[in-house]
Specification:
Number of helices: 13
Structural class: alpha/beta
Largest sheet: 9 strands, mixed
CATH class of the domain at 5-120 and 211-229: Alpha Beta
Oligomer: single chain
Low-confidence stretches: none
Strand order of the largest sheet: 3-2-4-7-1-8-11-10-9
Helix content: 25-40%
CATH architecture of the domain at 5-120 and 211-229: 3-Layer(aba) Sandwich
Number of strands: 11
Radius of gyration: 19 Å
């Protein structure tokens, strides 16, 4: 498939703890309208629609796509749903890219939406079912307990402290102050974070992401159509996905870094994009890093930092907005986590960076961005490389 694919329009709603002012289809349509307006297209111009969301039990409706086709403008068009957890909208975007690259469609709309305010405790209850029900299920309190095992394994193996880990939380919340769409826009000190309620050691309350309501959408188009649509396309230069076996660091201490699925997905994406030295060729990283220990582990898995050196480099400032490897200038998942749209938001933020439309959190001179999606408990990974040429 040699046909190039570009993002020609994006839309994202500001994430809120609750969007009681709209129902789910209406909130979904908000991002669609924004993406269509950004691309100067109408829904009539779209050939196919892909809807993505997290586990259906979070919606209280087992057939959410059935009552969204009309709201998504998909009546009379191919309409697909891509499920999953954190990777769903990243996978949906890649599925849309395959439709265009293969020649099956010329223009594809991909939309993601989530109203976690309606799910309540079901979010964490559902998350516990992503692990082995015989060996692991009884020992973990939702996703926080699961990811805490990664944190403890990483800190213990390489001799870091929880305070060093929480530096990532400080950084991401500082970046989020410049992003009007972030749910949590509050500058936090390291002391505030470490003194907040302990949730699952070493994670405190302020080391954890929020849950919120939001929608996001992208319009993808074939290369030959792009000049007629926009003067600032964001090209999908390489994309790949990979899965991992279900194992926990507590059972296999060597498993926590690097992440095998992310290593494989990035290897494939680098090859497709023609990237041979990611440390030099990638300008910005938008990582699906839901808890602070995941940033160094992911940067090591991507080959940017040496194993065990990631957190030290981060504390030195390597991933700050003015550092050599900026990570999550948008504030990332720690400030904005509607889950379903979250991996698409990483792609959208990458598109905004390479087209110089990121506003106050723009990194000057950005040509190439790597965006990731992370689903389940180290189960699924997606990597998308976005460029401006």
């Amino acid at each position: 498939m040699n046909r190039r694919v570009a993002i020609v329009g994006t839309g994202q709603t500001a994430c809120k703890s609750s969007r009681a002012d709209v129902n789910f289809p209406a909130m979904t349509r908000e991002a669609i309208d924004m993406a269509l307006e950004d691309s100067n297209l109408s829904i009539k111009d779209i050939d196919a629609v892909i809807f993505t969301s997290s586990p259906l039990m979070w919606h209280g409706n087992n057939f959410v796509e059935c009552w969204l086709a009309d709201a998504c403008g998909a009546v009379g068009k191919p309409f697909f749903r891509v499920g999953g957890t954190g990777t769903c909208s990243g996978c949906g975007t890649q599925a849309g890219a395959y439709l265009v690259a293969s020649g099956m469609s010329e223009k594809v709309l991909v939309v993601a939406a989530e109203q976690l305010s309606a799910a309540g405790q079901m979010v964490q209850r559902a998350g516990r079912h992503a692990i082995n029900v015989f060996w692991d299920h009884p020992f973990f309190s939702g996703s926080m307990g699961l990811f805490a095992t990664h944190g403890n394994a990483y800190l213990d193996t390489y001799g870091y402290t929880p305070e060093q880990m929480s530096y990532v939380s400080v950084k991401d919340h500082k970046n989020a102050l410049k992003n009007p769409n972030a749910q949590v826009r509050r500058e936090l000190t390291l002391q505030e974070i470490r003194e907040s309620q302990m949730i699952s050691y070493p994670l405190t309350y302020l080391d954890c992401p929020p849950a919120g309501d939001s929608s996001a959408a992208v319009v993808l188009a074939a290369e030959e159509l792009v000049p007629k649509i926009t003067a600032k396309p964001a090209w999908l230069k390489g994309w790949a996905a990979a899965s991992s076996a279900m194992r926990l660091p507590s059972a296999d201490k060597e498993y926590h870094a690097p992440l095998p699925g992310l290593v494989e997905a990035s290897r494939k994406a680098y090859k497709i994009a023609g990237i041979t030295d990611p440390r030099k060729e990638i300008d910005v990283f938008e990582l699906y890093s839901p808890f602070p220990m995941m940033e160094p582990i992911m940067m090591e898995s991507l080959g940017i930092f040496e194993p065990g050196k990631g957190l030290g480099r981060i504390v030195e400032g390597a991933t700050e907005m003015d550092g050599p490897h900026p990570v999550n200038p948008s504030g990332g998942v720690l400030s904005n986590n509607p889950i379903g749209p979250t991996s698409m938001l990483r792609i959208i933020e990458g598109a905004l960076q390479v087209t110089e439309q990121a506003g106050d959190h723009q990194i000057p001179g950005t040509n190439t961005v790597l965006a990731t999606g992370f689903g389940g408990y180290n189960h699924f990974h997606v990597v998308t490389i976005i460029t401006n040429s």
